[in-house]
Amino acid sequence: MLLGATVVVLDDLSTGSEHNISHWLCNPKFMLIHGDTMLIDPDAVVAKHRPTHVFHLASPASPPHYQRDPVRTLMCNVQGTLNMLTLARSCSARFLLASTSEVYGDPEQHPQLESYNGSVNTFGPRACYDEGKRCAETLVYEHVRLYGMFTSTLRIFNTFGPRMQPDDGRVVSNFIVQAIRGEPLRVYGVGVQTRSFQFVHDLVDAMLIALVFREEPVDGPVNIGCPEERTIDDFASIVKGTLGRPDLGVVHEQAAIDDPQRRRPDITKARQLLGWQPKWSLDDGLAETVDYFLLRNASVKPKE
Amino acid sequence: MLLGATVVVLDDLSTGSEHNISHWLCNPKFMLIHGDTMLIDPDAVVAKHRPTHVFHLASPASPPHYQRDPVRTLMCNVQGTLNMLTLARSCSARFLLASTSEVYGDPEQHPQLESYNGSVNTFGPRACYDEGKRCAETLVYEHVRLYGMFTSTLRIFNTFGPRMQPDDGRVVSNFIVQAIRGEPLRVYGVGVQTRSFQFVHDLVDAMLIALVFREEPVDGPVNIGCPEERTIDDFASIVKGTLGRPDLGVVHEQAAIDDPQRRRPDITKARQLLGWQPKWSLDDGLAETVDYFLLRNASVKPKE
To answer: What is d(CA A68, CA A74) in angstroms, rounded to the nearest whole number?
Structure first.
């Protein structure tokens, strides 16, 4: 296991899968606690495990998942984050918040700099996630200010890779699953909206640099994502190419409410303060991801 | 008591004063529960009182008060609001959220329309309040969408009137108290930042119209405030005039971080859908407020 560390995972598996970590379960330095950040007793975890680094990623993250129980999504990001901060604080552990490009809402500034305050509609179907994450950031800010905690807040832009759920509901896994099934790719809206896709290995690198390898914490949030922007229509063509299915069509469906039209991180801060930038090309990352989905072909087959 | 209703007040009195409601305490149709929206058992309140209308105003509201315990401020607006929504929902009561112009942060659109998504810095000293209220709005939105509740979300702009605390910390009471003490008026920043001041009676009218008198709920948040904009320097002159102290000086001190530079509501929606607009002039409201502070002169005297 990386760095010789013992890893304790707390997950309610509401949107993940134990299958994704099955290769770790027999390792004596790995433990899975099947539980909920909102309900767990921080003192009990601290007494038993004394963590030195807390990576707080707990939240549903794709719109169909986080809109399934929106009040729970919001509270998980507020109460769950407060609980994990309390846990980290009580044992002087470093704390990483997995924040999101969604704090920028449907941005009016492009590309997005960390100093941009965003444009989130509080009265919309994405707000349960966006506002929950914004509050989580504020809780981190206050824990730094009040208690001098070592924290890192990463605003993570679209990320993909092996072990995504076929029903994740975001565009990368949607397109791959549709293409494997030989279905036309479904685009919501006219397809000119853009996203920037980073491969999961690059994100993990950024997390380790920000929380483990640095001596001093970085002040404020840091964008972590790929600054190469693609339209959704372009991305559909790339996926069809990777899977050798240029014959598949594209169907345009109704755009989702409050769907961001453009999204691309300015990663100057990450470059300067973390010495980080993405290393994986979209093509290479996509090839790995497609291989993963092809290997577990059974679960992406169309229902009979 | 207005409309013959029984009124149950839930207040932790952390920033208010029992003195302000002492004239009601002997009325059999009035009850004060000294408690906390985050801790109270909604079922117990419902079983005992069966409210038909819930006006949710619980939160510290002035920067010195809400920054005293910022994590509590944020949680009070998130968990406290969820508890009060749960309470209202369980007895099919109508629900009013006292939201705030602070959801617009330091606005880049002027005047502010309800459709403007605001500019709040999540990593700043005002975020505990601003983000807490933004999340509270989202909780209301989801309770309307999921459960069809009758709700009203009022984005309340600067309001003043009798019974403000002398140590409230916002500009109206600060200036009046300083002028009564014969001290120079303290302005934070250069004094050209603007505010729009509404008198408390106008706000109460809006609340009753929005929650009690309407047959149908208004969709989405509604700005409630005075569309007349004043610079802080102008307002200092007005206060000095009202108190007959044109001789007093003005001292400019360092501006507060993230202090909004301009703030003025667009109240078209309130005019059209509530038939509401402010009736009180600044002069008349200020005269009433000054009279109140003069009457309780003892508590605003300088400390010896």
So the answer is: 11
* DSSP-assigned letters across all residues of B162-203: TT--TT--SHHHHHHHHHHTTPPEEEESSS--EE--EEHHHH
A137 to chain B, closest Cα gap in Å: 6
Q: A35-68, pLDDT tens digit by residue?
A: 999 999 999 999 999 999 999 999 999 999 999 9
* Tokens of residue A41, six digits: 């007793």
Largest Cα separation within chain B, whole Å, is: 58
Note if the bond before A63 is cis, omega within 30 degrees: no
- Cα distances from B110 to residues A159, B104, B114, B227, B264, in angstroms, run 36, 10, 11, 11, 7
**Res A237 pLDDT > 80:** yes
Predicted pLDDT of residue A304: 45
Bridge partner residues of A159 (DSSP): A198
Q: Are A59 and A81 in contact (CB under 8 A)?
A: no
pLDDT band at B304 (very low <50, low <70, confident <90, very high): very low
Closest in A71, A141, A145 to B139, CB measured: A71
Inter-chain touch B135–A138, beta carbons under 8 Å: no
Is A129 among the catalytic positions? Answer: yes
Q: Give A262's pLDDT tier (boundaries 50, 70, 90).
A: confident
Rounded distance between C-alpha atoms, residue A89 and residue B115, angstroms: 39
Contact A133, A102 (CB under 8 A): yes
This prediction has a pTM of: 0.94
Q: Which of B75, B121, B138 sits opposite A74 (nearest CB)?
A: B138
Please name the residue that has the structure tokens 């549903």: A60
The beta strands (E) that lie in chain A are given as 7-11, 30-34, 53-56, 94-100, 151-156, 159-160, 185-188, 194-195, 198-199, 222-224, 230-231, 250-253
Contact residues on chain A for B153, CB-CB shorter than 8 A = 123
What pLDDT score does A301 carry? 63
By DSSP bridging, strand B30-34 and strand B185-188 are unpaired
Res A129 pLDDT > 50: yes
Q: Residue B177: what are its φ and ψ, rounded to 5°?
A: -65, -45
Chain centroid, CA A176 distance in Å: 18
Sequence-separated (6 or more) residues with CB below 8 Å from residue B217:
B94, B144, B150, B151, B152
Give the number of other CB atoms < 10 A from CB of residue A244: 9
Among B80, B28, B17, B22, CA closest to B54: B80
